[in-house]
C-alpha cells in the first residue's frame, strides 16, 4: 500500500532502522531515534543507488513524491540524480568563490592595504554600504551594466553624486583586477561613462533627512577615536557654528552658570551668544578633566599644554573614517541641517534661526539685530533642537514634535 500521512505519523521506532515502502521506488526510513527520512531506490548504469529526498516532517509526503518524480525524469533522460545534485553544489561553490564580494575583498587586500587608514575605511565603507548588499552574492561575470547603474542611481538619489562617481571608479578597479586574474574579459564600468549626473561644486554637504541624520548622530556616538574629536563632533550639530569657531572654543568663553558661550565671530567681527543646551553642557563637562588645564576646549593632540586648538582637518578626517564622504556630510553642513529642520520640522521663526547662525538679520526698519535679540526664545529653541536630535538617535522610534508657535 502507498504511504499516507497517517501511516508516517503512526510509524514507531524499533531497535533497528526499517523501511516502509511507497510507490515507484520511494520509501520511508524509520530510525531508532524516531527520525524519518524519505529515500528513493533506483538503478543507473546497472548499479543500485539511493537518493535522499528529505526529512519528515520538514519535507511532506507530497513534496517527497514530487522530488521522486523529478529524479525519475532525470534517470529517463540519462542523468544520474545523485551526480546532478553534486554538480549543482559544486556550481554554487564556484559561484560563491567567484562572487563579486569575494573578488572585491581580494582586490582590497592586494591593492589597498598600503593606503592611508582613512582612505581604506572610506573605500571599504562605500563597498559595504552601497554595493555589496545588492551585487555581492552575484558572480562577477554575471553582473550587467544596467544592474550596476541601478546601484549607482540609488547613491545619486540620496544626493551623494560624488560618491556615485567614486563608487563607479572603485568598481572599475575591481573589474580590471578580475580581468588581470582571468575571471572576466570585459570591464562593464566603461559602458557607464556619462550615465551619472555630473559633480558640481558649491554648497557644503549637509544631511536634511531626519532618518539619515539620526544614523549620522549614532555613528558619531559610536566613534572610537579621540575623545576630544568625538565630543567636538557630538557638539557640532547641537550648536551649528562655523567649524573654525567650534575648534576655537575657549574655556574662558563658556559661562556654565548662564549656560552660554560668548565669542567673537571671525567672519563678521561681532560678538555672538550661543545658548548651551543641557546636552552640550554635559558633553563639555566630560572634557574638563582632560583639557581644562589649557586654553582650548578642543586642543590639538600635538600640543599637550592646550595652547593650540584642534586642526581644521581633525573633524573631517573622523567623518571620513566613519565612512561618510565629503559629498554626503561636512562639519559646516550642520548649519544647513539646523536651518532646514528648525524651520520645516520644529517650526521656529526663521529670524530666530538666522540670528542664531550669526547671520546679518535685519528688522523691518533696516536695523540689524544685536547679539542679545530674542535670546530667551533662542535658548528655548536650542534646547528643543538638542532634544529633537536625541530623539532622532532612537532607532525605529518616531517621536512627534509640536511645532513652535
Short structural description:
With 405 residues, this protein is α+β, with helices and mostly antiparallel strands. It has 15 helices and 7 strands.
Give a description of the structure.
The chain is of the alpha+beta class. The protein has 3 domains: 90 residues, Integrase, DNA-binding domain (Double Stranded RNA Binding Domain); 93 residues, Orthogonal Bundle (DNA polymerase, domain 1); 183 residues, Orthogonal Bundle (hpI Integrase, Chain A). It is built from 15 helices and 7 strands. Helix 8 packs across helix 15. The longest helix has 20 residues. It is elongated, with a radius of gyration of 32 Å. The chain starts with a helix and ends in a 13-residue tail after the last helix.
H/I helix tally: 15
What value does the average pLDDT take? 84
Largest sheet: 4 strands, antiparallel
What percent of residues are in strands?
5-15%
Shape, please?
elongated
Strand/helix succession: HEEEEHHHHHHHHHEEEHHHHH
- State the CATH architecture of the largest domain: Orthogonal Bundle
- Distance linking N and C termini: 81 Å
Could you list some keywords that capture this structure?
elongated, 7 strands, alpha+beta, hpI Integrase, Chain A, Double Stranded RNA Binding Domain, 47% helix, DNA polymerase, domain 1, four-stranded antiparallel beta sheet, 3 domains, 405 residues, three-stranded antiparallel beta sheet, 10% strand, disordered C terminus, single chain
